[in-house]
Amino acid sequence: MADFIDEHGDGAGVLGGGTDDPDPDVFVPTGAKRHFTGRSKSMKSGPGTLAPEPGAGFPRPGGPGGFAGPTQRFGSAVPRGPAALGGNRDDNVYGSVVAKASNLPPTIDPRRVEKLFADFPSLKVTKVERIPPSSPSTSSRMSRPSATMKVIFDKDANARDLDDAMNKMNDKRYLGHGYYLHLDRYLGGVSISTKQQEEPFGATLQEVEFSKGYAPPPDLGGNHRDRLREDAMNKRLLVTANVPPDADTVKLIHRTIEGVLEGGVEFEAALMQDPHVQEEERFAWLFDQSHPLNRYYRWRLHQIINSTTRPNVFHRQPDWKGPKEALPDEFASDMWDLSQPMEQVDSDDSDEEKPTRITIPIGENYPGRVDSGYGLLTPRSRTMLIWLLASLPPSSALYDEIAVFSAFAVERVSKGMDEIVHLLVTNIFQPFFLSKANPKYRPDANDSEAESRKRGQLPQLITNGLRIISDVALTTSKASGVCYKYRMVIANQLVNRKVFEYLEQLPNQLSMGRMGEIQYRDDINAILRVWEDELLFEKETLAHFDYAFNERKRQKEQEEHERKIAERRQKKNAARRKSAGEGISEDDDKMCVDEDISLNRFMDGASDERDEPLSHDVGASTTGEALQNEEANESDMAEVPGESAAARARRLRPKAEDMFISDGE
Description:
Protein name: SURP motif domain-containing protein
Region (Disordered): 1-90, 553-590, 605-665
Pfam families: Surp
CATH architecture of the largest domain: Alpha Horseshoe
Domain SURP motif: 252-297
GO biological process, one term: RNA processing
């Protein structure tokens, strides 16, 4: 008993007795509940003397090891709902619309956060407060620093409007320095964030299969078959590095690696300090170590510098796993360096695989990622396509010559679709037949005859290039798999690169003759009519093509038509002034307008409108003109003093304009 008292005390407060004045905050039950007595805390160590572990992210109340407050008595009310979560809460947080903006640059200005909601008029920001960081955790120490702010909206704001803003901006709005805006509903001091916690370099827990090898002897645990079966599949953290989905991103990362190899780590530091690089979204991966593109950048740099693919890239960090397949012909600098194609296998012996969409691996998606269904075009395939375009002669291409390009596009639908379309469109602006890709092309700047021959070949080469694009779009629209995506890629590039605007200006640039321009425009419009008949693209896109190519020609023809009408009007007015010997009256002006209207109707082919009755004003003007003509004839018949007979005969001779009458006459 003495040893027990020395270790646990004299029992005061444990059994509820031992003192004359018991603690009023301690409730001692009786009866069936006498074994679950409450007791106050003591400074002694031992079972039951430690304070309960607080929740994650909540500081422990009171001093370390001290009493946090009165013990909850049996039978008392237990808080429920949001109040049971603890922490500092706003009283009106559940009745108002408040957002939590996280993953912000540490030095961001609150006014910039307010401007982020300028595109949503219903979300009027009234206040922006910076939320102090909570107690540091393991995940926060591993991630880079960021700021979090509470955005309070006006009382008229609607929760649905905030949901709409979250759908459009959450993890999509780029803020510079590799930060993307993350939005959540603010729920007071215990707001729940949907942002997942990340491991260093974005490592994920993956299953790794180990080789079983040979069966161990019994003294080494060979009899434990169950344990060996469980050890065969094990999970551990791995950092995966995959090749980017598009060629432009691959080139950007490889150029950065070349800069680091030539200039050292100072090149990367200088690049990250450039203001344009900090605000440009295509360099977002450079500032975020867990970005999928940053992982490929680190892995490829480690692989080139160390000439190895060992998994331990960084000390005391998870192992790395590179791409399954290396980039083909990555270091090829000449056509002879390209790898040889694989042996052709008969289609009867092997089933042809239909092109399918490439799925995005888990953890490899990021904002601004290019559609992975396009793939990468190998250097050998790119060289082959350029050679095919360069070998097409500058004459009217045959159907079998154009069909080669459609077959090439269908076979590589998931291995560089956008690059194939890019090369086909480039062939319109700069035909490969007139480049160094054609072995027979010999440019000579001093030869005027060669330059003239080149200008004469351009219209046919450009027309052939557009026919190739048209056949690829028509063929892939009827093929299986994801070939239908060719039409969307073709339409986007034709619009974005302003192909038909260029085709419309080509006759003036090449100084085509009248017959050559007519033939050229008829060929282009024939292709456009095929697209309209086949409904190859959307109606808005087809209307854009027609407007870009034919609108200026239509306006020019309309202006020429109006100019001819004006010239006829001026000639007729001059003839009438000469015959009448005086200015045209107001009624004559109206008559000229009526004649121009009749001429326009005749030019437009609206012959049925000519039978419509004239208005009262037109009839009045016609009657007045007839009276004036009679008076003019009487004045002409009158004798002029001193006039000879020959002069009078010439004056009374019928004039050519008197032989024609207008519609009103």
